[in-house]
Amino acid sequence: MDIFDEIESLKKEKNAVILAHYYQDGEIQDLADFVGDSLELSKKAATTNADIIVFAGVHFMAETAKILNPGKKVLLPDLDAGCSLADSCQPIPFAKFKSLHPNAVVVTYINCSAEIKALSDYICTSSSAEKIIRHIPANKEIIFAPDKNLGAYLQKKLGRPMILWQGSCMVHEIF
Q1: Of 152, 161, 165, nearest to 97 (Cα)?
Q2: Residues whose CB falls within 8 Å of the CB of residue 162, separated by 6 or more in sequence, listed in order
Q3: Residue 151: in which H helix or E strand, if any?
Q4: Which of 114, 120, 130, 142 could be disulfide-bonded to 106 (CB atoms 3.0-4.6 Å)?
Q5: In terms of pTM, does the model score above 0.85?
Q6: pLDDT (tens digit, 9 = 90+) per residue, 77-136?
Q7: Which of 37, 60, 82 is the last residue of a domain?
């Protein structure tokens, strides 16, 4: 029995599912039940009947899967798997930043930690951000975090001033 067969056998025995992000190596994707971006994988996590979710991705992805599945075990194979965007917005500095604007509505991009999500009024994806921001009354200040680039794009597109957290993804910055 090779390693692939052993993993398949364990998945059946434990009623487990493997979700793999597009950024994972091909061998991991070959083992996965579902491959996709963080949003697509979150949707799969929310609908799985598996008792165990193995999330081959980064911390915020596994946290999101756990939030959507509080009664299930969610495993992150690489505990050092981080995201520079999520890491650029830490809870204590963000809470202080938020306290400077106590009446602002906080909209955060889903690629952030569970602690940042808990400090937010709305969680958005890149495809839902515009709709959410349009929904917020014009007289309300908006803090947008953690992605300053997505925030700047939305400001320009919507003509809506926002207070931007200065976070970014090093991969996206290169582009």
Answers
A1: 165
A2: 133, 141, 142, 143, 144, 151, 154, 155
A3: helix 148-158
A4: 120
A5: no
A6: 988 888 888 888 999 999 999 999 999 999 999 889 999 999 999 999 888 999 999 999
A7: 82
